[in-house]
Specification:
mainly beta, OB fold (Dihydrolipoamide Acetyltransferase, E2P), five-stranded mixed beta barrel, five-stranded antiparallel beta sheet, 6 helices, 25 strands
Length: 471
């Protein structure tokens, strides 16, 4: 084909000179051959030169290197470059000036391999983005043709997302970054993931540069954890902490959102250096306290659900996002110490009375013992002086026994009032914790909510009997 490359069009041919023999005048055959040879490139076998693609077939590619004949290269050597077209400049290795058919034999693959190592090293140093053809899959990754050299693409370096099907990449031409070279063993490692990360990093900087606190953006739920939800804001991720999902208590973020859900979020805070973005969802709705019934006041009774239990009390949700605390001391009229778990558990639906209400600080204290009558209100009528009752032993001290007559009504039996005849050194000599014991009311201190009780008074005083029978 190149033999006809420089033929003039017929309209430009000088027929008069041809008829007059002007074209050959003064030239011998040897002169013409010499002139023709000097017009061609001088080539040597086993050297690398640049050529131009002049034809592309199914099996072969013809390349003109300015020699008397065009070179033939197998089309397989250009698999890495599916965009190859006529007119492209390519490097070729001269294998043989002429074969039996007088054809110039060239190799693009050998040319690339010969110069590829220098180009690979330069790409590592300059972080140049290179193109590579994925030839086949291997253990742990893929083999990629880069500059005629087989490089390894680890599976973890294909994409930022986990890859399930490696085979879909075989036969593709992609861009890569050279990330590692072992000079001794001539091993090359490339990454496509590094390019994606660099692009994402640039997107992140651009997005973060436009962020403002209080700004509302649309995002997509990317991941859900037990402590919050990660939102994709279009190239950069933000976190909605579990406490910022709803004004109410959330035990599991899955109750509020689901994967791939699109939603609006508000920017609460962000860190330029660490690129952390705190987002809020609940902040896009009015605070429940602002919607609380304005007529609600101290002394009103409200129903609610126990949402959190602690040793010191229980938190009750009386309206969506509005909670009040029942301190353990407001759970029972009893004065002895008990745990809140003795009275309530999470999930209980209960009625309570409002003891205090602070709308400014959004605090509310509640009580449940107030729903029952205070047993000390009519203590003199219920437990008059000298009356006899059965109590339950709650605790011992060195000076006596604490007993409970009913919930909220406790009393003390002094150690001296346990027995008429026996000198008691410790209450355990007479009774035990949890046992029932008969008592008589000896004294009532309503202001301090105390009863003085006696056990020995439930029996006759033996000294009275002795005096009865004495002469």
């Amino acid at each position: 084909m190149s033999d006809f490359k420089n033929v003039l069009p017929l309209e430009d041919f000088d027929w008069e000179a041809y008829e007059g023999g002007g074209l050959e005048a003064g030239q011998t055959k040897e002169d013409q051959e010499k002139a023709y040879g000097e017009s061609l490139n001088q080539v040597q076998e086993h050297e690398v030169v640049e050529g131009e693609v002049i034809a592309i077939g199914k099996r072969e590619v013809l390349v003109d290197i300015g020699y008397k004949s065009d070179g033939v290269i197998s089309a397989n050597e250009f698999r890495y470059n599916p965009d190859l077209k006529v007119g492209d400049k390519v490097e070729v290795y001269i294998e043989k000036e002429e074969d039996k058919k007088g054809q110039l034999l060239l190799s693009h693959k050998k040319a690339r391999a010969k110069q590829g190592w220098d180009r690979i090293n330069n790409a590592l140093e300059t972080k140049e983005i290179v193109k590579g053809f994925i030839k086949y899959r291997t253990k742990g990754g893929m083999i990629v043709d880069v500059f005629g050299i087989e490089a390894f693409l680890p599976g973890s370096q294909i994409d930022v997302k986990p890859i399930r099907d490696y085979d879909i990449f075989v036969g593709k031409t992609m861009e890569f970054q050279v990330i590692k070279i072992n000079q001794e063993y001539k091993n090359v490692v490339v990454s496509h993931k590094a390019l994606i990360e660099a692009e994402l990093e640039a997107q992140k900087k651009e997005i973060i540069g436009r962020l403002e606190k209080g700004q509302v953006l649309e995002g997509t739920v990317k991941n859900i954890t037990n402590y919050g939800v990660f939102i994709d804001l279009g190239g950069v991720d933000g976190l909605i902490h579990i406490t910022d999902l709803s004004w109410g208590r959330v035990n599991d973020p899955h109750e509020i959102v689901q994967i791939d859900q699109k939603l609006n979020v508000v920017i609460l805070d962000f860190d330029d250096e660490k690129k952390r973005i705190a987002l809020g969802l609940k902040q896009l709705t009015p605070h429940p306290w602002d919607a609380l019934d304005p007529n609600l006041k101290v002394g009103d009774r409200v129903k609610g659900k126990v949402v959190v239990m602690t040793d010191y009390g229980a938190f009750v949700e009386v309206a969506p996002g509005v909670e009040g605390l029942i301190h353990v001391s407001e759970m029972s009229w009893s004065s002895h110490l008990r745990s809140a778990q003795d009275f309530l558990k999470v999930g209980d639906e209960i009625e309570t009375e409002i003891l205090s209400l602070d709308r400014t600080d959004r605090k509310m204290s509640l009580g449940i013992k107030q729903l029952k009558e205070d047993p000390w209100q009519n203590i003199e009528a219920t437990y008059p002086l000298g009356s006899r009752h059965t109590a339950k032993v709650r605790n011992f001290t060195n000076f006596g026994v604490f007993v409970e007559l009913e919930e909220g009504v406790d009393g003390l039996i002094h150690i001296s009032d346990l027995s008429w005849t026996k000198k008691v050194k410790h209450p355990s000599e007479v009774t035990q914790i949890g046992a029932e014991i008969d008592v008589v009311v000896l004294e009532i201190d309503k202001d301090n909510r105390r009863l003085s009780l006696g056990h020995k008074q439930t029996e006759e005083n033996p000294w009275d009997v002795f005096e009865m029978y004495s002469p």
